[in-house]
Specification:
Radius of gyration: 21 Å
Number of strands: 9
Strand order of the largest sheet: 2-1-3-4-9-5-6-7-8
Shape: elongated
Distance between the termini: 22 Å
Largest sheet: 9 strands, mixed
Structural class: alpha+beta
Order of helices and strands: HHHHEEEEHEEEEEH
Helix content: 25-40%
Oligomer: single chain
Length: about 200
């Protein structure tokens, strides 16, 4: 990465985190003058310094891109049945790390409002959880009838059955789940469409 790219990376993330040159310098042991030179493209940034800055700011290293595949839609009141043709609808870049294998889906419906709104993007883990491990958590689930939803998972009245709760809609009671995946993050519909 050239000095100008490093400078843009540093300026962007310092501004987003509202960190001053003095704050950053104090945190990682560099003088404000050295930070200023990096920002102006007058000084190289060592790999160790970049790692310390990335860790302090909670951002990826310079040159690393994090993308999420938007693979379809997920129901939160609306009935959604996934179509998996192997190709994502789109990819979005995020400037923060997400677990390996994570994917995203667009929320349809309002049964989870105000937590999730229609059009929000939710990311969820690529690794399936045993449904028992999902109890008490908000998860993306696929029911045995093919519907894919984002709900809070509760224990059902019988072994192997689960109750899915919403913020403002009746529970879906005693349904078997094909799988559950951990909910990771939500991006508002206004934000993610600008990314």
């Amino acid at each position: 990465m050239d000095r100008n790219q490093v400078a843009r990376w540093l300026q962007t993330h310092m501004a987003r985190k509202e960190v001053t040159q003095a704050d950053l310098g104090d945190a990682i042991g560099l003088s404000q003058d050295k930070i200023s030179k990096i920002i102006r493209g007058k000084r190289d940034l060592s790999a160790g310094e970049a790692a310390e800055i990335a860790k302090y700011l909670g951002v990826p290293m310079p040159g690393e891109n994090f993308t999420l595949d938007v693979i379809g839609y997920i129901g939160a009141g609306a009935e959604v049945r996934p179509i998996n043709d192997g190709e994502p609808l789109q990819q979005i870049e995020v400037d923060f790390p997400v677990p390996q294998g994570s994917v995203a889906a667009i929320v349809r419906g309002d049964s989870m409002f105000p937590i999730f709104e229609d059009g929000d993007l939710v990311a969820y883990g690529g690794e399936p959880l045993a449904p028992e491990k999902a109890i008490g958590s908000t998860c993306v689930v696929q029911l045995s009838d093919g519907r894919m939803l984002i709900k809070r998972v509760r224990r059902g009245t019988q072994e192997g059955l689960y109750t899915l709760t919403s913020s403002n809609a009746p529970d879906i009671e005693d349904v078997p789940l094909d799988w559950a995946r951990a909910f990771i993050l939500r991006l508002s519909r206004d934000y993610w469409r600008k990314v």
